[in-house]
Amino acid sequence: MSKFQPISTYSDAEHGYELLPFKFEPLGEGEVVLSNIVGEFVILEREKLGALVNHTLDTSDPDYSTLRAKHMLREPGEQAPLELLALKARTKFVNKANFTNLHLFVVSLRCDHSCQYCQVSRQSEDKAKFDMTEETADKALDIVFRSPNPAIKIEFQGGEPLLNWPLIKYIVEKAEERNRLERRNLQFVITTTLSLATDEMFEYCRDHGIFLSSSLDGPEDLHNKNRPRPGRDSYARFVDGLWRAREIVGYDAVSALMTTSPSSMNRVKDIIDEYVKLDFNGVFLRHLSPYGFALRTKSYHAYNAERWLEFFKEGLAYILELNKAGTVFVEHYSSILLTKMLTVRDPSFVDLSNPSGAGISAVVFNYDGDVYASDESRMLHEMGDSTFRIGNLYTNNYEEIFTNDALLTALEDSFTLSAPGCSDCAIEPWCGADPVFHHGMTGDMLGRKPESEFCKRQMGIAKHLLEVMRTDPEAKEIFMKWVGAC
Amino acid sequence: MGGRMLKLSGKVIQLSSAVMPVRRQLFLLSTNPHLPVVLRGKRAFLVRGNEVPEGFRHYLAFDSVPENLPAEAACTVIDRTFAYLAENDVIAIGSDGRIRSLYRASSPHNAVLITERCNNYCLMCSQPPKDVDDGWLMDEAMELIRMIPRHTAKIMCITGGEPTIYGEDFISLVGHFKRYLPHTSLHILSNGRRFADREFARKYAAVGHPEVMVGIPVYSSDPARHDYVVQAKGAFDETLRGILNLKEFGQRVEIRVVVHKQTCDGLPALAEFITRNLLFIDQVALMGLEMTGFTRANLDSLWIDPIEYKDKLSEAVRVLSSYRVPVSVYNHPLCLVNPDVEEAYVRSISDWKNEYALECQGCTRKHDCGGFFSSGIQHGYSQSLKPFT
Ligand code: SF4
Ligand code: SF4
Question: What is the pLDDT of residue A84?
């Protein structure tokens, strides 16, 4: 007799197995996806799920090994699965403990564009009325440096923030000065259309390590249609600004975001081609947020979640084609979900995290001193819903702002691990809480998920990504490259 | 290229009757006839030419006793298979008349075997475990460390058996290395199970060796398969917890995977498991099968031509690289891996184990190729070799 034992000896068929916590959700016809709290997943045939929960799954079944390796089940006495699950859960939530990283300064509401879908901007020459003052900025900086986060990002927003350039410089220099003692990892970003950016501004950005987040909606006709300005030259100004910024500030210092208007729906390839042509390494196929003018002009309802998903899927398919043909190009919305599906990290994207990032990971200082839990919150305020105005720099201190009842209630009520609908949803580990959206749409922090456009979108994307990974191993490897490197 | 296999142990031809060692003795060799006299008492002189200076503790000569051997001097005669011995090497001569080379100053691959005992019983173990009291190997290792000239060893490997089977004494050994040879980086080959004991892991970390790494095998993401390969139920669980403890205490850990019939299909899943659960690991080594020890007994369940798993190997390397996990592929013939593995391809594990096959003659990339374990040349290797032209 051999002194070596066969593999069957090493599974505990006799004592059975224990289930570890997981949730499941049907996928198409005969299959289900199982996911656990740390975002790992297994796709199974429906009958196998039945066998699994009835404790009749055979130890020699290949799915048994997979489920064991992904910590959906364990054999008696095994400790490592629990230790690893705990470690992964800690890793996933660790950034939350650092509290606020992103601090948005709305330095001016004025803008040279009059985009139909813009939520907040003003066509006005009245600086006194719509620009932030130095005094307000100083008070905001006091709050910024109260954040315990070792990394601090200050983002200048508008309107068009470059219209209040002197204040940007003022804030950058004040923050740098304070940081000589604070020693935080301090970053600056300006969100701008680039239409008013001068070489001097770029040189300043270069010298102070300021990043630029700009806007590109697609090919010239689409972009100019979305973004009217005197002279109808938004696109030309963007392209000119982009190349000058790359030349002066640095190639990687400038990124672009896209607004998906109803006119974008049939143009996803054109949009992506435009991004490729201008040598961006990715695109964020976002949906239009339902606030401000967007809601008032009803353009939000010009496409629903289903229509948007079609747009998204068509775009993703095209992007995968590009990658397979050798052009490395990332779709950022997918990346956010994929990071949660395929890595231990949480990307900490404010609108797609749990607990919601509003007021925790990010906070907004409006031009007039009002403090909002997120960018969407101030847009909601413009529509008359001031729930997420969590304080004012002139009347509230740090403690009052961040322990604001409305904020704490919103965070707690929307927490997806306990929210009705979400708590037993298999997509939950990859999803997020969005109390601001739901409050804006339904007057409630949660909304009813089956009716929620947010939920439809998230479910739709997640299931689509799973389907792509299941049927296309090459796509899965591309996804791993998108999310693995950092 | 790639040298013939070196014979590391053998019988001596003759021991001068003057001093017959009563126990195993270690000798630090010198080939320098001008060595200061005050140092000679500690060293053995390796006779290379006609000169046989006085005052050395021992003499080592090839083929016959030198005529001009100082009177009363102890001399051991060895054959030419030991011709590679050189300045600063350390050898052991036993009372049984065997000589073993313990340390070669010129080699980057010095391993100290401290036990043959192990709590695993791997299907492909190259050093089949023996349940014997071999504590003398530990004593010898301690003596060897004191003897190795400082700064001559860049890296050394502690191996077994399972080194941690000694418990506290193993930790003392690491401390001993740190005190005597702080400039020598250490690579410890362990199955990691002992480190599941947090206190043990903590004590190991507390040694504070400046440059030490533990190489720990993980053969599959499926615990049952890992346990089967190492023939020990519950081993996977302990090994994983050991790795977690080591990393928690800031220790460097390498994951080592021997690729064979039982592990090759699961390579991509294992790579994914590592990126998901052990992303903090310092490096991963994917190694070819050595045709020694138990492997030969289990050949049917282990042997697979590397050409058959080359796509799985590629996939595993791609997954690990995507997540920036440093990965190396060892001991695979270059002509049997896909080109996308080359970035991770390392030429060899140990210089004294490398050889090439007859088919390799004329291969234009032999100098890039890791070739085979010499055991492979003896006991079987892939029939799919395709020399580069
Ligand atoms: S919003 Fe919808 S998809 Fe997201 S966790 Fe809740 S129920 Fe699931
Ligand atoms: S043929 Fe060339 S590549 Fe193949 S094993 Fe021999 S030396 Fe290496």
Answer: 97
State the Cα–Cα distance between residues B378 and B140, nearest whole angstrom.
Answer: 31
- Owner of token pair 């085979």: B372
Distance CA(A448)–CA(A420), nearest Å, equals 8
Probe residue for ligand 1, chosen from A27, A418, A449 as the CB with the greatest number of ligand atoms within 8 Å: A449
- CA A285 vs. chain centroid, Å, equals 11
Cβ A10–B224 below 8 Å, yes or no? yes
Tell me the pLDDT tens digit for each residue of A180-238. Answer: 999 999 999 999 999 999 999 999 999 999 999 999 999 999 999 988 888 889 999 99
Closest partner residue to B241 (CB to CB) among A11, A83, A480 is A83
Architecture of domain B110-379 in this structure? Alpha-Beta Barrel (3.20)
The per-residue pLDDT of chain B, averaged, comes to 89
This model of the complex carries an ipTM of: 0.89
B371 close to ligand 2 (CB < 6 Angstrom)? yes
Q: Where are the domains of chain B?
A: 9-103, 110-379
Question: Residue A66 is part of which domain span?
Answer: 17-93
Cβ(B335) – ligand 2 distance below 6 Å: yes
**Plot region of A218 (φ>0 → left; ψ -120 to 50 → alpha; else → beta):** left
Indicate whether A428 belongs to any domain: no
Same domain membership, residue A134 and residue A78: no
pLDDT tens digits, A124-137: 767 778 999 999 99
Decide whether any atom of ligand 1 lies within 6 Å of the A431 Cβ.
yes
For residue B298, the chain A residues in CB contact (below 8 A) are 4
**Measuring from atom 2 of ligand 1, which residue has the nearest CA?**
A455
Q: When comparing pLDDT for B7 and B35, which is higher?
A: B35
The reported pLDDT for the residue numbered B371 is 77
**B275 in contact with chain A, both atoms CB, cutoff 8 A:** yes
Task: Please say which residue of A385, A402, A419 terminates a domain.
Answer: A402
Chains A & B: contacts with CB separation below 8 Å: 83
Buried/exposed code over B302-328 (b: 16+ C-beta within 10 A; e: otherwise) = bbbebbebbebbbbbbbbbbbbebebb
Q: Which of 114-143 (B) contact A at CB < 8 A? A: 121, 123
Same domain? A86 vs A110:
no
Does residue A428 line the site of ligand 1, with CB under 6 A?
yes
Q: Does residue A161 share a domain with residue A147?
A: yes
What sections of A187-331 are H helices per DSSP?
199-207, 220-226, 234-248, 268-277, 292-296, 305-324
CA distance A473 to chain B (A): 10
- The answer to whether the beta carbons of residues A227 and A115 sit under 8 Å apart is yes
What CATH code is carried by the domain that includes residue A113?
Answer: 3.20.20.70
Q: Which residues of A428-449 are buried (b: 16+ CB within 10 A; e: fewer)?
A: bbbbbbbbbbbbbbeeebbbeb
